[in-house]
Structures are given as C-alpha cells and as structure tokens.
Amino acid sequence: MKKIKSIYVILVVAFLLRLIFLFPQYSGDVKNHLVWGNAALTNTIGLYSTHFTGFNDANYPPLAIYLFAVSNLFLSLLRNLFTFLNNSFSFFPSFIIPLFNHENMSYGFLKLPGILADLGTGLLIFKFFQARKIKHPYLLTSLYLFNPAVIYLSSVWGQIEPITNFFLLLSLYLMFLGKTDRAKSSSLIFFIFATLTKQTALWFAPFYLFLWLKNLPVRQLLAGAFYSILVFFASYLPFGLSPFAALKNYFATLSGSSTGVSDAAWNFWYLLYPAGAEDSVHLGLLSVRTISIVLLISLLVYLLIRVSKNQYPRTFLNSLFIWALAVFFLQTRVHERHLAPALIFGLLTFAENPAWWVGYVTLSLFHFLNLFLTLKIPFI
C-alpha cells in the first residue's frame, strides 16, 4: 500500500506542476485544435472537408478531434457551473469567472488530454519497472514525469504526441504484462487508438505486428484485428465518411505537412542542408528522401531480425528505442517533437544501467532545446 501511495503522490505533484504552465502561454497549433473541437461540437458531418478561414483544415484523426471537442465541452460546463454558483452565492470567489472566460483558459483546457496522458505514461513506466524488479523505480519514473522536455511538449506547447505515446505504451504493457490472451489481444485496439490520435504511430506498426503474430493465438489475433478495424472505421462514421473515404482521408496526410529535409527537427539532414531545403535535393545519385527511406528500411529489417531471435522485453524495447532515434535523425519531413517516443523507450531499456542515466539526461536536454528554440515560448 505504501508503494502504491508513493507513486500516486508523485503523479499528483507532476500534475500540479503541469498546471502551472497550462494557462500563461500556448502555441499557435492549439488555436487550430480549439476551432476543430468547437466545430465538432456543432456538427461533425463534413468536418474533414470544411475550410476554416484563418486556420488549418482538420488533418488529425478522429480520436484527436473528439478529445478537442470534449476539452471544449468540459470548459463550457465548468463556466456555466461557476456562473450559476457566482449568481447564487455571495461567498463564491468571483475572480474565477473572468479567469475561466479568458481565452488562455480555452487553450489551456485543450492541453489537459496531453497532460493526463503524461501521467498515464508515467504510471505505466513505473509498472514496467515494478514487474522487472528494477531498482529505484520512483527515481526513474520521476526522470520521465519531471522531464522538462516532456512537460514542455504537453503543458506549454499543447501538442498531442503524449496521447499517442501513451496508447503505444499501453499496447505494449498489455502484450508483455497482460494476464490473459484476451487482455493481450486488446493490445491491437489500443494501438489503433494511438493511430487515431496521430498518424506517426504507424512508424512503429511493423514491430507491433511482429509481436502480435509471434505471441497471440490465432483466435485472439483475429478477434483483436476484427475489433480494431471496427473501431477504426466506426470512429469516422460521425464525420459522414464511408470506410473507403475514411482510408483515403487518413492516408492523405501520411506524407507529412512539408517536403523539407527537416521540419524544425535537429536531425542529420538539418545539419547538412540549410533551412527550407526540399528533400528532393540530391546527395550523389539519389534524392535525400530516397536515401532516408533506404536507410530506414535497411535498419528496420535488421531490427526485426534482431527481435525475432530474442523477444525478451528489454531487447524489444531497445529495438523500439533505436527505431525511434532513427525515424527522427534519418527521416526527412520530421518535426522536433517526434523525438518524444525515444525518451520513453530509452528509459525502459536502460533503466538498469546507471551509466545510461547521463545519456538519458543528455538526450532529454537535446530534445528540450530543440522544442524550446523552435517554439520560442516563453518569449524571453
């Protein structure tokens, strides 16, 4: 009981720390989330074909849109409740009303799903450490929960990568630590949840597919696949999209939002080429885009062969860590925030080796500086 209470104290402190950064500033991306969420509350039909003047078209999958809508609805309900209490009781603190009517609060509430996902990821990391009987689980979990890069991404920037990462980790947790075949097969559904928040989850699909094929009985595999496909297409139904239209909409954004060698990520190509360079530029006989794809496919084949020989969780997690680094440093069109999964898989891989902690702190600092110097918030 003491151990359980201790981890929840850490989670509460981590949550309160994130709330400090929720209100003051935000990124321009969150303005899109607000508009999309409000539009979904009005009418989801046709949302993906709607052009929002002054804002980006909705290009996130359905689960992300639903979370934006729920965040907006939650704030609206709280505003109405506080207004009622303020009008009904003289002792109600009236300063709350203008605070919750401030536009920053609207943007702040959109950060809540990412913040809660941070906490969920931290709890899963702790449970992985407990299951593997790794020393200092509280300290190691705190390295994630109080990591400036992690806090910055969800609580300052307001990005939703933390939600995708949470579902990716939950899917792994169920596969490695699920007590029944049914629990393990639900891993497929939570992976689909990850893909329905951000398409970048598909980078890890080959590893998850290998894990399912090797470890799930055929019946459970087919059941998990069936329900996962059902969830995917059902999530698009409120938007009025048929299965074919849903697939077309989903894959339309897979190529990325730019064709640059880097989209603000401090990766290998960022060091070689000036800002704004297109990934169609040639390095020798081949374009940079082609070279990056060849390198990644070659590494993917090697890593899959590696895990086929040893499925021990540490080997698998280590392969995911290497892959997360590779898609960030070798792929073109990558954003600065796409390094985030490496912080999770790296911590789970090397937690038993105190010498790695210095490397983890270094990687975290690199990630934080890339995030901070790209967004430049706070404005100092």
Automatic annotation (TrEMBL):
Top-rank taxon: Bacteria
This protein's UniProt keywords: Membrane, Transmembrane, Transmembrane helix
Transmembrane segments annotated in the record for this chain: 7-27, 33-51, 63-85, 105-126, 138-157, 187-209, 221-239, 283-304, 316-334, 354-375
The protein's name in its UniProt record: Glycosyltransferase RgtA/B/C/D-like domain-containing protein
